[in-house]
Known about the structure:
Radius of gyration: 25 Å
Number of strands: 6
Order of helices and strands: HEEEHHEHEE
Oligomer: single chain
Amino acid sequence: MFSMIHGRKLILAAGILALFAAPAVFAADAKAAKADKVERLPLPDGNDFPISSAVTVKAGVDTYFLSGALAPVINKDAPKGSAAAFGDTETQTVGALNAIKGTLARLGLTMGDVVKMTIFLVGDPAKDNKMDFAGMMAGYKQFFGTAEQPNKPSRSAVQVAALAAPGALVEIEVIAAKSH
């Protein structure tokens, strides 16, 4: 009789312990699962170029599609519709990414939540009408693959004939994702 009562007490104690320990275990599992919902595949061979080869967004993640962003006019004295009004490619890239950063902030997101980016570049008249990829990268590297913001989106950059705003050299659209 004594061992049966003692056994029941042990089972009751184990059950109570499980009730208190389970939330911590489930919380740890939930945190690990949440962290794995957006996976970024680095470029091969240790390439440190600041993009991901691919990004996987799993179930349980909200996805945000942001419209293309242009840089603001920085020189109101320059002729309207001129590249001088918007600045060079680096300046326009930074301006467009700051506009995107502001939109993301209004959604409760950061640049670290960007998973896909498409950059449209107009040929720069000052560069023989070729896209200024180096100028775009100089602006881009201020936002991605940094110590403060190490996440790297998958990305494409293409040259286009023109953008909707005359004088604009850069338009950027992004897709962002965040676990809920």
